[in-house]
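Per your request, structure below.
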């Protein structure tokens, strides 16, 4: 990790936020899903690494959200919602996310929540649900999205999947990892997902 001043780190996170907003504005489905928040306040994160950081860096292209993410990967507060008892150690070694904005995000917001998540090649993200409505936008890689009441669909970059409140859903990553922007809205926005 290279040393950077707090101001330089904030600039990097603001670039990531801007890149995410550009992607959001280019997606009619996301724009219809929720308005971009207007109450964002930067809160300097305390870096917390996860084992998958080298894999996340490897997904960075020359520009866009993935390159902006790679620039902050060592400065971010990476989160793993689940325990090894729930999903296993292998899953945790190949999974993690940052809360870009939201109640406890790098940019705080009470209006909606955004994550950037990574799931490694071959992982099965077991069935889970949450009260908040959710929209996934695939940034890189591929995944098979499954949800109660919907036909399974494999999505690659630019693909969008929306889940209703408490709709049980799962993902399978086959021959590629998955990097996705995930938006939450509505009641339960500050809650965590629960494995079913």
């Amino acid at each position: 990790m290279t040393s950077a001043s707090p101001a330089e780190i904030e600039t990097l996170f603001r670039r990531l936020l801007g890149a995410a907003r550009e992607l959001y504005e280019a997606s009619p489905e996301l724009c219809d899903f929720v308005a971009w928040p207007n109450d964002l306040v930067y809160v300097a994160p305390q870096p917390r690494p996860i084992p998958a950081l080298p894999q996340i860096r490897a997904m960075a292209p020359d520009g866009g959200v993935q390159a902006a993410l790679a620039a902050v990967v060592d400065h971010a507060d990476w989160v793993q919602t689940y325990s090894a008892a729930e999903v296993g150690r292998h899953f945790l070694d190949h999974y993690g996310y940052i809360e870009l904005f939201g109640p406890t995000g790098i940019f705080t917001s009470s209006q909606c929540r955004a994550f950037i998540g990574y799931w490694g090649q071959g992982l099965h993200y077991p069935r889970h649900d949450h009260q908040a409505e959710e929209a996934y936008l695939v940034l890189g890689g591929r995944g098979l999205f499954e949800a109660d009441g919907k036909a399974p669909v494999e999505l690659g970059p630019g693909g969008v999947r929306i889940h209703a409140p408490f709709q049980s859903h799962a993902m399978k990553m086959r021959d590629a990892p998955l990097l996705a922007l995930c938006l939450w809205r509505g009641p339960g926005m500050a809650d965590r997902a629960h494995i079913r």
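The two ends are 38 Å apart (CA to CA).

Regards,
D.
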